[in-house]
Amino acid sequence: MLVLGIESTCDETACAIVKDGKTILSNIVSSQIDLHNEFGGVVPELACRRHVDVMIPVIDAAIKEANVSIEDIDLFAVAHGPGLIGALLIGLHAAKGLALALNKPFIGVNHVEAHLYAALMSNQEEVVFPCLGVVLSGGHTALVLMHSNDQCTLISQTVDDAIGEAFDKVAKLLGLPYPGGPEIEKLARQGNPLKYPFKSGNVKGRPLDFSFSGLKTSVLYSIQGQNCRDQPISLPYNDLCDVAASFQYVAVNDIIKKTIAAANQYHCNSIVFGGGVTNNQYLRDRFSEKAGHLKQFWPTLGLSLDNAAMIAGLGYHIYSRKQVGDMLDLEAMTRIPFASG
């Protein structure tokens, strides 16, 4: 089965063609980093305008690279949530239009669940379910119990900032360019992770939930004082490195501690990672050091950031289970629950 996937949940416009849920024939991504860099984050209106401009060229490029025709496609898959409502609508309507014009089924995919499936696409070894899913991205931070490729139960999530968002906000405080994650990691390699006694956030009565807003504020107060203003600061290079290292150390250790606790509580022997923050090599190294007793499935670089191959791949499994496509009145959803097993 050839599946054409479309991804437009935030600031990447992507299209991919995947065979039988795993073999990637093409995976085209049009990034918007250049567009949002000066603002230190994604501007929804600008993101939507870019999606409109590049959606058709990106689809054409994916079809050409896969060396197939649009008539060869058996199923259209699209991320219909969670994400920015305007951005979601552009991708969703593109998929619906193609499905309607070609009289082919289409399927809506949960973008967050697709991030976890990206790690399974990246590994030849089959994962044993149930296992623990760890989503770490700019918009999402969650732990889920994975019952199958496309069915999960939410265990915990962030109550405020996502981990990637926290990295971006701290980077902005330090006057670093967007996206902030790679910049923080780069500085942290030269810093002392114990220089600043930052603390991770804890949610009362919910020990597995995450909270990174307080950590960001702690960084701000530590370098500017209690009466500071939320604006970029100027620090000597060595101090910048120490702040970055200390922040990253606390944030990553918090994720590892809660992941291991969840794996023990739910008797999981394997962890599946998804989301752009999984590109952080320090994160990977610390997980290998602290959770080496657990089998770990990481996405490759090309599948960790937002992409359409993961949408097409997971769409194949959803359709195979349901044996029917979604109705054309399927709506875009800024928030969407996990498909419980």
Spatial gap, N to C terminus: 24 Å
What percent of residues adopt helix (DSSP H or I)? Answer: 40-55%
Structural Rg:
20 Å
What is the CATH topology descriptor of the largest domain?
Nucleotidyltransferase, domain 5
Element-by-element helix/strand order:
EEEHHEHEHEEEHHHHEHEHH
List the helices and strands and how they pair.
Layout: E1 2-7, E2 12-19, E3 23-31, H1 33-36, H2 44-66, E4 75-81, H3 85-102, E5 106-110, H4 111-121, E6 131-136, E7 141-148, E8 151-157, H5 163-173, H6 180-188, H7 213-224, H8 237-265, E9 270-274, H9 281-290, E10 295-297, H10 301-304, H11 309-322
Parallel strand pairs: 1-4, 4-5, 6-9, 9-10
Antiparallel strand pairs: 1-2, 2-3, 6-7, 7-8
Give a short overview.
43% of the residues lie in helices and 19% in strands. The chain is built from eleven helices and ten strands.
Could you characterize the architecture of this molecule?
This protein is α/β, with parallel strands linked by helices. The protein has two domains: 2-116 and 303-322, Nucleotidyltransferase, domain 5 (2-Layer Sandwich); 127-298, ATPase, nucleotide binding domain (Nucleotidyltransferase, domain 5), CATH 3.30.420.40. Helices cover 43% and strands 19% of the residues. It is built from eleven helices and ten strands. The chain has helices spanning 33-36, 44-66, 85-102, 111-121, 163-173, 180-188, 213-224, 237-265, 281-290, 301-304, 309-322; strands at residues 2-7, 12-19, 23-31, 75-81, 106-110, 131-136, 141-148, 151-157, 270-274, 295-297. The strands form two sheets. A five-stranded mixed β-sheet has the order 3-2-1-4-5, sandwiched between helices. A hairpin with a 3-residue loop joins strand 2 and strand 3. The longest helix has 29 residues, at 237-265. It is globular and about 60 Å long. The two termini are 24 Å apart.
